[in-house]
């Protein structure tokens, strides 16, 4: 039982480390093993199809080793594919075992304290999802916006440059899967917004240099997080900043929304979509 709080702290640290492109190494330098492991841990933590507590990941000289137990072969393969999409990982040694009896949620333990812990973990995941989208978005000052979640209710605070940016941040949070409501306490202007704006400008400059793999991962995540798009049915590929979407959507509206979400990610130059509609 003690391993859950320890791993949650590790995951939280990884989210803080890997969420910002500012921690990337200088242009042209390969990402470090630490950065790759942090990014992978964050990816597993944010993925709604995997339980991060079941997977131990290590990265050594670009080789990721996955250990632990998952519920199905699909989850085993998903964990491996996610690892292959991380910058700095050149090879994956998948030692994950499949056990259909693995408990999928901490709440199955049945204890009130465990359920309380589960709620905290799920709220932390929602906070990470919203914060990540604000950081990835090309026009929101994600560094200046604080995100807090309690019982699926998100609170946004901090300073932004305009009322339009405050409303955009609120809409991004509202569109995130499992968010029930948003309390928008963002204020416009102020010294904090100016300082954060300078940091954000530097972040956007770094974003111009991010790899195609980074862009693909962020676009895919943004599609999965949005409640109005079935991101699991959309494949994402990126070449020299140009994103290609393939798969199936339910309507023309969903197709256009998928394109819009993809275009909003930092570093994306343009989007082409081959998305069919209907069954």
Number of strands: 10
Instruction: Assign a percent range to the helix content.
Output: 40-55%
The tally of helices reads 8
Stretches where pLDDT falls below 50 for ≥5 residues? 1-30, 105-115, 202-208
Determine and state the CATH class of the largest domain.
Answer: Alpha Beta
Radius of gyration: 19 Å
Average pLDDT, to the nearest integer?
76
What coarse outline follows from CA principal-axis ratios? globular
CATH topology of the largest domain: GMP Synthetase, Chain A, domain 3
Q: Identify the CATH architecture of the largest domain.
A: 2-Layer Sandwich
What features would you describe in this structure?
- There is one protein chain.
- This protein is α/β, with parallel strands linked by helices and 279 residues long.
- The chain folds into three domains: 3-104, 2-Layer Sandwich (GMP Synthetase, Chain A, domain 3); 121-207; 212-277, Histidine-containing Protein, Chain: A (2-Layer Sandwich).
- Helices cover 44% and strands 23% of the residues.
- It has eight helices and ten strands.
- Strands 1, 2, 3 and 4 form a four-stranded mixed β-sheet that branches. Strands 5-6-7 form a three-stranded mixed β-sheet.
- Strand 5 and strand 6 (153-160) form a beta hairpin.
- The radius of gyration is 19 Å and the shape is globular.
- The N and C termini lie far apart (45 Å).
Describe, in short, the structure shown:
This protein has 279 residues and is of the alpha/beta class. The protein is built from eight helices and ten strands.
Question: Any chance you could write out the topology, listing elements then pairs?
Answer:
Elements lengths: L2 H16 L14 H14 L8 E6 L2 E8 L2 H12 L6 E4 L2 E2 L13 H25 L8 E6 L2 E8 L2 H12 L6 E8 L2 H17 L4 H14 L8 E6 L2 E8 L2 H12 L6 E8 L2
Parallel strand pairs: 2-3, 2-4, 6-7, 9-10
Antiparallel strand pairs: 1-2, 5-6, 8-9
């Amino acid at each position: 039982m003690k391993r859950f709080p320890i791993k949650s702290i590790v995951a939280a640290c990884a989210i803080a480390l890997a969420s910002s492109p500012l921690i990337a190494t200088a242009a042209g330098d390969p990402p470090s093993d630490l950065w790759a492991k942090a990014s992978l841990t964050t990816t597993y933590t944010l993925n709604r199809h995997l339980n991060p507590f079941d997977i131990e990941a290590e990265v050594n000289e670009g080789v990721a080793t996955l250990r632990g137990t998952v519920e199905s072969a699909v989850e085993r393969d998903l964990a491996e594919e996610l690892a292959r999409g991380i910058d700095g990982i050149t090879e994956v040694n998948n030692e994950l075992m499949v056990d259909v009896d693995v408990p999928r949620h901490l709440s199955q333990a049945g204890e009130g304290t465990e359920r309380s812990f589960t709620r905290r973990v799920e709220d932390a995941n929602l906070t990470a999802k919203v914060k990540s989208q604000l950081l990835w978005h090309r026009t929101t000052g994600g560094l200046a916006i604080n995100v807090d979640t309690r019982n699926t209710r998100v609170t946004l605070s901090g300073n932004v440059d305009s009322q339009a940016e405050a409303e955009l941040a609120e809409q991004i949070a509202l569109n995130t899967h499992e968010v029930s409501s948003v309390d928008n306490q963002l204020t416009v202007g102020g010294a904090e917004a100016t300082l954060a704006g300078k940091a954000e400008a530097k972040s956007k400059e770094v974003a111009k240099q991010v790899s195609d793999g980074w862009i693909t991962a962020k676009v895919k995540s943004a599609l999965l997080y949005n409640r109005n798009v079935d991101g699991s049915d959309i494949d994402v590929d990126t070449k020299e900043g140009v994103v290609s979407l393939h798969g199936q959507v339910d309507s023309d509206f969903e197709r256009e929304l998928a394109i819009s979400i993809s275009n909003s990610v930092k570093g994306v130059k343009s989007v082409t979509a081959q998305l069919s509609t209907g069954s």
